[in-house]
Amino acid sequence: MAKKKKPKDVSAEFRNTQLTDALQTQDMAAVAFALRHGPTVVPLLRPGSRDDPRDSGEVWTYRDPATGDVALLLFSDATHKPATLPPHVGLHSPLWLRDFLATHGEVITTVFFDIAGPHPLQAAPADLLAALEA
To answer: Which domain of life does the protein's organism represent (predicted)?
Structure first.
């Protein structure tokens, strides 16, 4: 009789423990270090194609219907993403985040980390870009 494979815990792979710790202390230097040296969990409107490693999916952003302001929501851990957001997440590198902010920083008005907790933090895209380039 063949053994059934135990399902892989994907959520264990979608986290940045250093970023979680930095958000807990609200230490901006530690947040910057964690962003420069580890991945960031990003909600996706459309997941990337498994057959195309260049396709990282389509990042979901929030547009305030009253003001038109656009917010990028990032997470230190996939378990911190509210269920009301799109179900898919991507794990993106510091280089990806730097390039994304450099490309879309003029449109994005704010970046939220772990918006629903346990330790939310808000930052300006330009500040994050400067931290990533330091």
So the answer is: Bacteria
